[in-house]
Design a protein that fits this description.
Blueprint: E1 3-4, E2 9-10, H1 33-36, H2 42-60, H3 68-82, H4 95-130, H5 136-147, H6 168-185, H7 196-199
Antiparallel strand pairs: 1-2
Helix pairs in contact: 2-4, 3-4, 4-5
Length: 200
């Protein structure tokens, strides 16, 4: 607290200095908040809206109760997402519909992942069955396809690099040994000068 008297102003804090931020000139401002937002895919927008609805529900203490009408709206919206309609306006739907739709989409993604894993098992099992085929072309093709399955990787080329750490003395000794081996392989040759008469 500052105490002001006629003679002395006693204040434990230093006076606030006026701070003016640096303002850039000629920077265009977005027309609206919507223009300032990054572009989102339909799924990202749906997830963001569902998180917001959940946060509001948690803060207000009012649970999200989905009715049959909300479920119907969510199903219609899901059909629009599948049809890839870009003019879909999620803001016109209530929080309950958005929350239910977000749950449907996350469940759908989970099911797609499970179906992909099941499909991979099916393909591998079919290929294994074809490895017993009497036709060698089919058998070889099935074995080759099995080798390319992710996780088997029988035909994947690998390069291994071995790094050997040595001291300077060890490197010098190896170089000397190599030079000595090369020296033993050298052949002593005596040079002989040939005159031009011998070539004629």
């Amino acid at each position: 607290m500052c105490y002001i008297s006629q003679k002395i102003t006693e204040c434990p804090f230093p006076p606030m200095l006026e701070h003016i931020p640096d303002i850039e000139e000629n920077v265009p401002l977005p027309v609206s908040v919507a223009d300032a937002m990054p572009t989102l895919t339909a799924k990202e927008e749906l997830e963001m809206m569902a998180r917001t609805a959940k946060l509001i529900s948690d803060l207000t203490g009012q649970p999200i109760q989905v009715t049959q009408e909300h479920r119907g709206q969510a199903l219609e919206l899901a059909e629009q997402v599948i049809a890839n309609k870009s003019d879909m306006n999620l803001a016109q739907y209530p929080n309950e519909t958005i929350a239910y739709l977000a749950g449907m989409v996350s469940q759908y993604d989970y099911m797609v992942v499970r179906e992909f894993a099941d499909l991979k098992k099916y393909v591998v099992n079919k290929l294994l069955a074809e490895t017993d085929n009497a036709d060698p072309k089919i058998r070889l093709g099935a074995i080759k396809a099995l080798g390319e399955v992710d996780g088997v990787d029988a035909f994947k080329k690998r390069t291994e690099v071995t790094v050997k750490h040595q001291s300077i003395e060890e490197v010098e000794n190896e170089l000397l040994e190599t030079l000595q081996k090369l020296e033993k392989r050298t052949i002593n040759v005596q040079s002989k000068v040939l005159s031009s008469e011998n070539h004629a």
